[in-house]
From TrEMBL:
Keywords: Cell membrane, Membrane, Transmembrane, Transmembrane helix. GO terms for cellular component: plasma membrane. GO terms for molecular function: transmembrane transporter activity. It is a multi-pass membrane protein. It comes from the Bacteria. It is found in: Cell membrane. InterPro entries: ABC3_permease_C, MacB_PCD, Macrolide_Exporter_MacB. Residues 298-412, 694-804 form the ABC3 transporter permease C-terminal domain. Pfam families: FtsX (PF02687), MacB_PCD (PF12704). The lineage of its organism: Bacteria, Pseudomonadati, Bacteroidota, Cytophagia, Cytophagales. Residues 20-249 form the MacB-like periplasmic core domain. This is ABC transporter permease.
Length: 815
């Protein structure tokens, strides 16, 4: 019997080539989408899950409550005192909290581990590399394989440095040759290679090519304003809540006495940090996990659309199979046998679709990796992939074949063999409901595509309050850290071809630091040495500032707008010692009326406000504009040199800068970053989401149209004689096309009405993650609906015109 069922299934497959092809291609496209999203989701969830002690690894975060406002971040609380290295308030946790087995600080910066690449030299070889600083237990906590050296000694010595296989190969040829060798750091300090670790796997959220000992940063290197995080490995029996309580009990006496400000430490599993890194009410909740959820939903939607195609075509074509069912029942076949037969046919199609899916996955994998910025390996050698693929195929086959199998097996043989088969109203409504559901999902994806694309374009193209075109920066380092060489560089570069203006800033414009004022002269902050105070400041007032120091030409170079007061001026001798500029947001939060002339103190300096800058963005549009306070310093030993190039002369400008740079700073490679390119990096996730949304929306529409094409093909096949009669009676091609189109258009209109409010809610929720966002305009939904209608008309018209153009004599002889 099984052999007979297989034979009949294959015959039906060959007999209805068009419908079989539509079903196979539709199912294959749905399964390809599912598999690629599955691989992407699996890769996202696999970040930081490869460490041996992953279940016991945690990152500390702090929740800060100030003035009724609750914020959170991963920074470790720090206290600064002038002239001394900062005090890390979570140091020595292993002594105070027995459940803490290992503890390690790790420094992070903006985009890069330490904030910027650093220069190393061995002999004549000189490279800029990205790395960081870490506590000596770092390699005990994390399972980064060591090729040379061991976890006990890798970061034990202040004068030691652990480097990657890549870095060892660059300087010494191999890991074995690197250990014990000396590396010149920033042309001023020598470090001895104490260990070589394997290049970090793509599943690691931490990225670095070298690590200094944590204490070396405090004792040998100049301090920086980077963000320091605390990683812990707890004992296997530790209770996380109990550990948090003990840590906070340990921390509170060390905190400054800040009235109205409270700081609490929480612990988040390391495996969750990558996907849950956004803070809500001071705790990590959202983040990339939202994209994982969204695209998991998209995968299910597209698979459902493909399965709905199969259901619709199978039930629509049930008239063709009705007599077969009737004869089988008369000959003694029971319902379970028929259900098995139709499920078998659905599974056969699903497995044929699986074959097409495998070919597409292999061919498209490189493009998918390039598209998403991933490095996902071909999954064909992994047993879990094959298990998932077979499971997906069986699920798809059973889902797609469920309704047809139950519907066809329920037909009554007496009515079938009498030729009285008619679809019940409930069967018609069910099939129409499936079509509405299918197009509703496609319309939601269309709306999502428009909204995501518009928001991504908005955040990338919106004016930030300064001109980021033709603007680049060079880090102040080496010989440029001296006042003489910096001023000489500025003077010479300003006269070179392609250069419009040169100035300096303590930080790049798109990545300014953040300091929390704490009312008492100390700061538990990422940057700064002291609190910021101002005239008329109320007790217990706490404002988080973005402080920066700049050169005299900064405002002109950045094309900032001054809405009140004046710019810094070299002709005013006191501007370097007691003048500040603030932005509109700072004025608002400080509660100043007539702010010009009011005194402000910061960086152990007291001065007066001379100008109000129009608000401009100093970070991504995910964050609201922060209050900004600016002072002028024509020279600092750190920061960046900002260069405005002349439009259309970028090539000449870079050649000029390189020439001056190499002359004045020969021991450092010439390195630069364009602000507009760095700004775009802030929206990598949104860019990937926009690309994937476009692809999935197109596929959803394509799969829906395949199903629609199949239904129209079947409808025209069933009504061939009717078309012939209508043409003989004088019906035009347009009238016949309209006859076939109206029912489908009605279903799409219902889909639009149902899908639009759902799409509005979903997109409105997604936009809440941006402080600055587009409005959900009515035309987003109108355009999506119009697009769905237009595609429906094209699909229906193609097949109905083809049927309408057939000679009516041929149509009437069709029986």
């Amino acid at each position: 019997m099984l052999r007979n069922y297989v034979k009949i299934a294959l015959r039906n497959l060959v007999k209805s080539k068009g419908f079989s092809a539509i079903n196979i291609v539709g199912l294959a496209l749905g399964m390809v989408c599912c598999l690629f999203i599955f691989l992407w989701v699996q890769d996202e969830k696999g970040i930081d899950n490869f460490h041996a002690h992953e279940k016991h690894l945690y990152i500390a975060y702090q929740t800060i409550t100030s003035g009724g406002k609750v914020d959170g971040n991963y920074s470790s609380p720090v206290r600064y005192a002038q002239g001394q290295p900062p005090t890390f308030l979570l140091a020595d946790l292993q002594t105070a909290v027995p459940e803490v087995k290992y503890q390690a600080f790790y420094a992070t910066g903006y985009e890069l581990p330490w904030g910027h690449p650093e220069t190393f030299q061995a002999g004549e070889k000189k490279f800029k590399l990205e790395g960081s600083r870490a506590g000596q237990d770092f390699f005990k906590i994390f399972s980064y394989p060591l090729l040379a050296g061991n976890a006990e000694t890798a970061l034990k010595e202040i004068g030691g440095i652990a480097i990657s296989r890549k870095m060892a190969a660059l300087f010494f040829g191999s890991p074995e040759k690197a250990v014990g060798k000396s590396l010149r750091y920033e042309n001023r300090l020598d470090f001895k290679v104490s260990a070589v670790f394997e290049n970090l796997p793509v599943q690691s959220s931490l990225k670095f090519d070298f690590l200094f000992n944590w204490d070396a940063q405090k004792t040998k290197l100049e301090w920086s304003s980077n963000d320091f995080r605390t990683y812990l490995q707890l004992s296997e029996t530790a209770d996380v809540k109990t550990v948090e309580t003990k840590i906070n009990r340990f921390l509170q006496p060390r905190l400054a006495n800040s009235k109205g400000v409270t700081t609490q430490i929480g612990l988040q599993p390391l495996s969750e940090q990558y996907l849950h890194s956004n803070f809500v009410n001071g705790k990590p909740e959202g983040g990339r996990i939202e994209y994982v959820r969204i695209f998991s939903g998209v995968a299910i939607f597209i698979l459902l659309i493909a399965c709905i195609n199969f259901m619709n075509l199978a039930t629509a074509r049930s008239v063709k199979r009705a007599k077969e069912v009737g004869v089988r029942k008369v000959l003694g076949s029971n319902r379970s046998h028929l259900i098995g037969q139709f499920f078998g046919e659905a599974l056969l199609l699903a497995f044929l679709a699986m074959g097409v899916t495998l070919i597409l996955v292999v061919l498209l994998m490189p493009a998918f990796n390039n598209f998403t910025g991933k490095q996902i390996e071909s999954p064909l050698m992994h047993g879990s992939f094959w298990a998932s693929l077979v499971g997906l195929t069986v699920f798809t086959g059973l889902l797609a074949g469920s309704y047809p199998a139950l519907f066809l097996s329920s037909l009554q043989p007496v009515r079938i063999l009498k030729g009285v088969l008619r679809f019940t109203q409930s069967a018609i409504w069910f099939r129409q409901g499936l079509t509405v559901f299918q197009f509703g999902l496609a319309i939601i994806l269309l709306v999502a595509t428009i909204v995501v694309s518009r928001q991504t374009n908005y955040v990338q193209k919106t004016h930030l309050g300064y001109d980021r075109e033709n603007l680049l920066y060079i880090r102040v380092e080496g010989a440029l850290s001296t006042q003489k060489n910096y001023l000489l560089f500025k003077e010479q570069a300003s006269k070179m071809p392609g250069i419009a203006m040169v100035d300096r800033s303590s930080e790049a414009p798109h990545a300014m630091g953040f300091v929390v004022d704490d009312n008492d002269g100390s700061a538990e902050t990422n940057t700064g040495n002291d609190a910021i105070n101002w005239e008329g400041k109320q007790k217990n007032t706490s404002v988080g500032f973005k402080p920066t120091s700049v050169g005299f030409d900064f405002v002109k170079l950045m094309n900032l707008k001054i809405i009140e007061g004046r710019d810094f001026s070299r002709t005013n001798a006191t501007d370097s010692t007691d003048a500040f500029m603030v932005n509109e947001e700072a004025v608002r939060l400080m509660g100043l009326k007539k702010p010009i002339g009011k005194w402000v103190s910061a960086w152990q300096k007291k001065g007066h406000i001379i100008g109000i800058l129009k608000d401009y963005h100093t970070h991504s549009l995910h964050e609201p504009i922060k209050p900004l306070i600016v002072d002028v310093k024509e020279y600092e030993y750190f920061g960046v040199i900002l260069v405005r190039t002349k439009p259309g002369q970028t090539k000449e400008a870079l050649a000029s800068l390189g020439q001056v740079y190499r002359t004045l700073n020969p021991n450092y490679p010439f390195d630069y970053q364009f602000i507009d390119q760095e700004y775009e990096k802030l929206y990598r996730s949104e860019q990937v989401m926009a690309k994937l949304s476009n692809v999935f929306a197109v596929l959803a529409i394509l799969i829906s149209c395949l199903g629609l094409l199949g239904l129209v093909m079947f409808s025209t096949e069933q009504r061939t004689k009717e078309i012939g009669i209508r043409k003989v009676l004088g019906a035009s091609v347009g009238e016949i096309v309209a006859l076939f189109s109206k029912d489908f258009i009605r279903l799409v209109l219902v889909s639009i009405l149902i899908a639009s409010p759902i799409a509005w809610y979903a997109m409105n929720q997604w936009l809440q993650s941006f402080a600055y966002k587009i409005d959900l305009a009515w035309w987003f939904f109108a355009a999506s609906g119009a697009g769905a209608l237009a595609i429906t008309l094209l699909t229906v018209s193609f097949q109905s015109i083809k049927a309408a153009l057939v000679n009516p004599v041929t149509s009437l002889r069709s029986e």
